[in-house]
Amino acid sequence: MSLVILAMLIWGAAWFVNVRLADSSFAERRSIRLLVPTIFGLTIILMWELIVRGLDVPLVILPPPSLVIQTTSENLPILWKDFVQTFLKGALRGYLIGCTSAMLVAILVERYRFLRRGLLPVASFMAALPIIGTAPILVMWFGFDWHSKAAVVVVMVFFPMLINAVAGLRESSFIQQDLMRTYAANAWQTFFKLKLPVAMPFIFNGLKISTTLALIGAIVAEFFGSPIVGMGFRISMSIGQLALDMVWAEIVVAALAGSLFYGLITIIEKGVTFWHPSQRG
Fold first, then answer.
1. pLDDT tens column, 245-254
2. How far is 102 from 176, CA to CA, in rounded Å?
3. Any idea where the domains of the chain sit in the sequence?
4. What is the second-level CATH architecture of the domain 72-280?
5. What is the pLDDT of residues 148-175, one digit of tens each?
6. H helices within the chain, ranges in order?
7. CA dist list (Å): 39 to 4, 43, 54, 86, 96
């Protein structure tokens, strides 16, 4: 119990420090904005370690972070192969195909009213379909390699991206479009100089949502059939072997990959939409 009490004391101290930092006059500095979540995250990990060891929690229930780190370091070649199979081959390819095709369809939907009235309700219906039901069907259609995982990712990211892109392309006002006609701009000039720039915040919102959906879709698809490599395959096999430390190692790799992918899209967004009020602070 002494470790549990120590964990509570550490949590209280970290809470006090974070409150003081967040309420200080330097709270808006970049260093403080990075320090606060860093302290918070490290505190959670340290409490996890102390509580699990203090209460003697069985490994099959929850392994301590130190064991997860040790397992990760000892299995880096396996984790790298799983990462390449799941993320680079399945999730990333499906993400690129799904988002690109959704953007092209969004241009047609914005251009033609009958598509907007007919396709968007269908898109909302398709987006609500449970991936746990569609994934095994796509695996049977496209086989057990990365192609089926990419197909699942395409289905998951296509409709959220489509809905966001269409909303963005329709964001420009009638006055703005009338001004472009006053300048004798044709339809494509209006699209590239007005509608597309205005739609960029919406498009990047869809891209950021799709980053998490892509990795989730690829991992779930691997539960229903995969070569003997991949994050989903490894998680499923490790659970059957009660190797919870390996499961958590794969979860850590997936979380890091998803966070870095999301961060990359956010950085690109800042460069493309630097003019938007949300990026100017």
1. 899 999 999 9
2. 25
3. 2-58, 72-280
4. Orthogonal Bundle (1.10)
5. 889 999 999 998 899 899 888 888 777 8
6. 2-23, 30-54, 65-74, 76-83, 92-111, 113-127, 131-142, 146-169, 174-182, 187-190, 196-222, 231-240, 244-272, 277-280
7. 19, 6, 22, 31, 35
